[in-house]
Amino acid sequence: MPHRASPIRVGVVGVGYVGTLHARIYARAPRQARLVAVCDVDPARAKAVARQLGCRAVTRIQDLFGQVDAASVCVPTSQHHAVGTTLLNAGIHVLIEKPIATRLEEADDLLALAARHGLVLQVGHLERFNAAIQAAQRYLTHPRFIEAHRLSPYPFRGTDVSVVLDVMIHDLDLVLSLVTTQPARIDAIGVPVLSGSEDIANARLVFPSGCVANLTASRVSDETIRRIRLFQEDGYLSIDYRQQTAELARKVGRTIRRRTLSVKQRQPLDDELASFLHAVRTGQRPLPPAPSGYGRAGVSGTEAREALALALKIEQVMRNSASLRTPH
Hints:
By secondary structure, the chain is an alpha/beta fold. A hairpin with a 2-residue loop joins β11 and β12. The protein is 33% helix and 27% strand. The chain has two domains: 8-126, Rossmann fold; 128-268 and 308-323, Dihydrodipicolinate Reductase, domain 2 (2-Layer Sandwich), CATH 3.30.360.10. An eight-stranded mixed beta sheet has the order 8-9-10-7-11-12-13-14. Strands 3-2-1-4-5-6-15 form a seven-stranded mixed beta sheet, with helices on both faces.
């Protein structure tokens, strides 16, 4: 009989809402992963999740050393660098939830550590694994205009950073994967509403190719909307991330013909974690998906750095604009 590779020993650091999802997926994939432990600064929370999933509960990252081969980092963004650095220095492969960090210097440090130790560093830009994006990608050519709306009610989590780093960065990553360059011009505006940083933001990006992207993100909406439309020379694609649906519209003669694309709906997080485990097992770095294969590979630390760089530029433009509007 062929030899079957042993499951990868994994841990999850931070078991709030997102971290608990990671832990559950690892726990129900025993052939690929063995959930060894969950780690959280709240002992009661760690114990509750561990009891449910049949693993250890720890409160110190150091308790994972020598016990796990890989770990998901699902702590607040402001802690990504510290936790990621600790794990990488211990020889542990890392999947960090988006964004990779809060500053470029932190991202560069994580990238250097992963390269030095020969470890996988993947970042959780989940929409790359969305089935609607996968269905639409074969029809994508050269977008001329991109419009995205990502709105949701106030989450009471992730608010240690602006809505750009917390929410809009999903669309920034996808736009960069399509256009492949940083924008030549950025116009942006944002305002805080319920937190200490911007809760609603709009950015208009003009790229050297002439493509324009208009992105709106809000975490103070009454409804949840996650949509993107991509206009190109032969028509446009309309994608609903949340519903995992996609529609193609094209001009035929004097009519516009719309076609609903076939989408095999899946849980994107399942595929994202599977890609991480594959990268750990094979020793392959997470690479950007090829144009014909969105979602087949995880988002590398390098790609995540590009998305962070753009998000930080948008924040700077927003805050410069706000300072000009504020009476002195």
